[in-house]
Hints:
The complex is a heterodimer of chains A (321) and B (335).
Chain A: E1 2-9, E2 13-20, E3 25-32, H1 37-51, E4 57-64, H2 68-75, E5 79-80, H3 83-94, E6 100-104, E7 109-115, E8 118-124, H4 133-142, H5 147-154, H6 168-180, H7 185-203, E9 214-217, H8 224-234, E10 238-239, H9 247-263, E11 279-285, E12 294-300, E13 303-308, H10 314-320
Parallel strand pairs in A: 1-4, 4-5, 6-9, 9-10
Antiparallel strand pairs in A: 1-2, 2-3, 6-7, 7-8, 11-12, 12-13
Chain B: E1 3-6, H1 12-25, E2 29-32, H2 38-45, H3 54-66, E3 72-74, E4 77-80, H4 89-92, H5 94-101, E5 107-109, E6 112-114, H6 119-130, H7 137-161, H8 165-172, E7 192-197, H9 200-203, H10 212-218, E8 221-224, H11 231-242, H12 248-262, E9 267-273, H13 277-293, E10 297-303, H14 309-334
Parallel strand pairs in B: 1-2, 1-3, 3-5, 4-6, 7-8, 7-9, 9-10
Helix pairs in contact in B: 1-7, 1-8, 2-3, 11-12, 12-13
Amino acid sequence: xxxxxxxxxxxxxxxxxxxxxxxxxVTYLYLLTQGKPIKMVQQGxxxxxxxxxxxxxxxxxxxxxxxxxxxxxxxxxxLVKNEITSHAVAALQYIPEVQTIIEIGxxxxxxxxxxxxxxxxxGMNTVCAAGTGSFLDHQALRLDMSxxxxxxxxxxxxxxxxxxxxxxxxxxxxMIHKQQMGHRIEDILYGLCQALxxxxxxxxxxxxxxxxxxVFQGGVAFNQGIVKALQEELNTEIIVPSHxxxxxxxxxxxxxxxxxxxxxxxxxxxxxxVSEVKYHTSSFECKTCPxxxxxxxxxxxxxxxARWGGRCDLWERSLSS
Amino acid sequence: xxxxxIPRALLYYQYYPMWKxxxxxxxxxxxxxxPTTQIMLSSGSSRVVAxxxxxxxxxxxxxxxxxxxxxxxxxxxxxSVKKKVYNCSKFLGLPDMTKAVIPESPxxxxxxxxxxxxxxxxxxxxxxxxxxxxxxxxxxxxxxxAAWQAHLSYIQLMSSHRLTPxxxxxxxxGTLEANxxxxxxxxxxTQGVIAIIGHxxxxxxxxxxxRLIHRLERFGYKVLTPEMLTTEGLESATARLVGSAxxxxxxxxxxxxxxxxxxxxxxxxxxxxxxxxxxxxxMDMVRxxxxxxxxxxxxxxxxxxxxxxxxxxxxxxxxxxxxxxxRRRQVKVCV
Lengths: 321, 335
């Protein structure tokens, strides 16, 4: 069976998906990155191998997400793709008539504007991570509830509580203030959802032509409170695809399928064996010029596989020669 | 020989050949600071409050790097170079601010340039500047005429040969032949054309913009910049988009953006610094124009002191993908 793997290593979660030759989802995984991207990619490969049928033949692998270059070297990716393109391609696969894609992940949030199947504009959060998954997680933890419970209870809100959502620091102090004034926790939670949605639309969505159908993907789309708040704010139906949390990985798999068909080369996939190998990472400060770049390197058995982080190509070049 | 230091920052990219000619005609030697590095940026920002804008921090870093290397530092206060159009306040107070925060700076040669005043005042100011080198007003006059000529031919060189300011400066100083790589823009482009707009001190400072031009060229794009347009082309585009702009260099940014959105580019990228008021207004005008036209892709990138390379790289990759996929689709439709 023809299989295309998409691996999305984000700041908070690592996603792996396997698509078959007709782009149907065979299986997928959703893991916490826990600050260990290499280990999670290895573990993910090991796990997904068990979930795949025996006759699975890996015809292409693509990586995406903020650790896409690192993951790409580890697995031997045929394609390393940015998350914006990946998310857009995945959304278009399931909802071809989509015009707006909202994606909120652990550390970043994006908006992608599509017209007639083509991305025409996009935006990403710049200096501010307010309203992303990590902040919601943090608030759930502070209130001693799981993120699932957070979402459920937010839906039980009956009265409006306004929370300042411009900045997470203010949002948190505002929430505490409201809680100490005796507001119901459900109302505060939903107030926070509304604040985050407002912040997202004023920040990432600023100046973007948001038209329905609107698709909402990424881990935060699990949160029904946010979905409801988005629905109210945009006054339109919000479509949450059934595999919204792995859409980035699906997009990467779709793209590598497209790429392999076009190039007709064999996959560079290093095999599931890489999950057993011990990779070593280290870093050093380059002193060649006054920029003092921090160079990170990935090595295997004393041999350096890849280097990143330089402002110039010096270290990448020294590797290839 | 008297050494005059010129910081490779802010207005350097617009006026360097003019300044260099002026001082050299008067018998001085010109010293430029090296390209921006992290150490220069950190040393510059350590002198000012956090809210100061990035380009000024970079500028101060360049001034600091010239300490001990020259007798004078040239920091003009360029208030206005066009009637009723003014510069951002950071240019107005630049010599005074530098004096205040870098007391160890070599003596500052400053000059007020304001074309809204009488012509006589401008000539007087130039003469005052020249007096540091000669008592002979005739020599100062000669030097300023030569400087103006150098400026005109610099601008002409950039628009006629489609050169960026650093390329044109290299060419004028004769170092280009030794380094043919600088011409790579013209040979390797296969994917299309991307125009970049923004202040020259952002577009050509590779440290600040994370090697933007280099990255786009590596993706296979030919890169166009505002300087490659003629002054007339730029002014007519500006007039169409905003009438007249209150801020000098902002008008040029809008004009270049408008021009490239309408013709000659597959995509336009606007670069601005976080917290720059005029930029945020002007870039929005370009963005609105792009939204109205719906023909050319537009993206604005904001840089600041702590901008991580990853953010810039991801956006550039996505932008380039957007152009490529759109084009591939159009080809399919045609077939």
